[in-house]
Amino acid sequence: MNNEQLTRISYIILMGFGFPIMRFTSLHFDTLNNNAVRCLAGGLFFILICLVKFCQELKKIFAEPTIIFSLLLLAVLMTSNMYFFINGLKYTSAVAGSIFGILAMPLAIIMAAIFFKDERQRAKQKRFYLGSVVAVIGSLLFVLFSDKSSENSDFILGSVFLATAIFIQSIMNLVVKQVSKRLHAIVISASTATLSGILYLILAIHTHTIEQLQNVSQVMLIGLGLAGIYGLLTGMLMAFYIVQKQGVVVFNIIQLIIPLSTAVIGYFTLGEKINLYQGLGGIIVILGCILALKKIG
C-alpha cells in the first residue's frame, strides 16, 4: 500500500467519525457559537504548528497581496459553508450530511475541468465516468431509501441547507487548488480556519448568541474545542492535502465512500440505522469508487 492509498483510507475512516461528532455538537450548541469555538480552536492549533515548522511559508502570505486576498475569500466561503452545513446536520442526520457531499461531485468536477488542465485530463477517462455514475446511483439509493424524511418534518429544510453548503464547497475546492500552488496545506488551513472563527465570533457577539456559552459546562466547551481541532485536521487539512497532491477529481470520488463509514460509526454512536436497501446502495458506491479510482489513482 503506497502513501496515496494510505492517505485515502485514513481520510475515509477519520471523516466517518467526523460527521457524528459534528451532528452531536449541532444538537447542543447554537450554530454561531459552535463554529466560532471549533474554528478558532482548530485554527489556533494549526497556527502553533506553523510557527514551529512553517515560518518560511508564513512569510509568503505577507509578501504576496494576492495570497492574502485568496485566504480572505476562503475564509468567507468557509464561514458560509459551515453555517449551512451545521444547520443542515441539525435538521437531518450525520449520514445525510456525508451523503449530500457526494451529490455535488459532478458540479465540482465540471468546475475543476473548466479551470484546470490537469483535472480535464483526469475527467476525460471513460472509466472515471462509468465509475462515477455507478457511485452516484448507489448514493442516491442510499438517500431515497432513508426513513429519516418521515421522522423529521424539517428534513427538507435541512437538505436545502446541506445542498447550499456543498455548492459553496465546490467553489472552495477551486480556490484551494489555486492557492495550494504557493502555500503549504497546513498554512492554508490555519489561516482560513482562524479567519473564519473570527468572523463567527464577531457574529456571535453582535447577535448576543455568545452569551449562551455561559450556561455550558467547561467539559462540553473543551470537548467542542477538541472537536474543532479534530474536524480541521481531518475535514480541512487532509482534504486540502488530497486536493493539492491528488487533485479535485480524486478528492470528490473519495468523498463517495465517506457515507458508508459514517453510517457504521453513526449507528454505534448516535443510533442512526440503515436498512437493507441503503446497504445495497452502499455496496454500489464502493464498487463505483473502485472502478473510477483504479484508472485515475
TrEMBL record:
<feature type="transmembrane region" description="Helical">
    <location>
        <begin position="219"/>
        <end position="242"/>
    </location>
</feature>
<dbReference type="InterPro" id="IPR037185">
    <property type="entry name" value="EmrE-like"/>
</dbReference>
<feature type="transmembrane region" description="Helical">
    <location>
        <begin position="35"/>
        <end position="55"/>
    </location>
</feature>
<dbReference type="InterPro" id="IPR050638">
    <property type="entry name" value="AA-Vitamin_Transporters"/>
</dbReference>
<keyword id="KW-0472">Membrane</keyword>
<keyword id="KW-1133">Transmembrane helix</keyword>
<feature type="transmembrane region" description="Helical">
    <location>
        <begin position="9"/>
        <end position="29"/>
    </location>
</feature>
<feature type="transmembrane region" description="Helical">
    <location>
        <begin position="183"/>
        <end position="207"/>
    </location>
</feature>
<dbReference type="GO" id="GO:0005886">
    <property type="term" value="C:plasma membrane"/>
</dbReference>
<feature type="transmembrane region" description="Helical">
    <location>
        <begin position="92"/>
        <end position="116"/>
    </location>
</feature>
<protein>
    <submittedName>
        <fullName>Drug/metabolite transporter (DMT)-like permease</fullName>
    </submittedName>
</protein>
<feature type="domain" description="EamA">
    <location>
        <begin position="157"/>
        <end position="292"/>
    </location>
</feature>
<keyword id="KW-1003">Cell membrane</keyword>
<feature type="transmembrane region" description="Helical">
    <location>
        <begin position="67"/>
        <end position="86"/>
    </location>
</feature>
<keyword id="KW-0812">Transmembrane</keyword>
<feature type="transmembrane region" description="Helical">
    <location>
        <begin position="128"/>
        <end position="145"/>
    </location>
</feature>
<feature type="domain" description="EamA">
    <location>
        <begin position="12"/>
        <end position="143"/>
    </location>
</feature>
<dbReference type="InterPro" id="IPR000620">
    <property type="entry name" value="EamA_dom"/>
</dbReference>
<dbReference type="Pfam" id="PF00892">
    <property type="entry name" value="EamA"/>
</dbReference>
<feature type="transmembrane region" description="Helical">
    <location>
        <begin position="276"/>
        <end position="293"/>
    </location>
</feature>
<feature type="transmembrane region" description="Helical">
    <location>
        <begin position="157"/>
        <end position="176"/>
    </location>
</feature>
<feature type="transmembrane region" description="Helical">
    <location>
        <begin position="249"/>
        <end position="270"/>
    </location>
</feature>
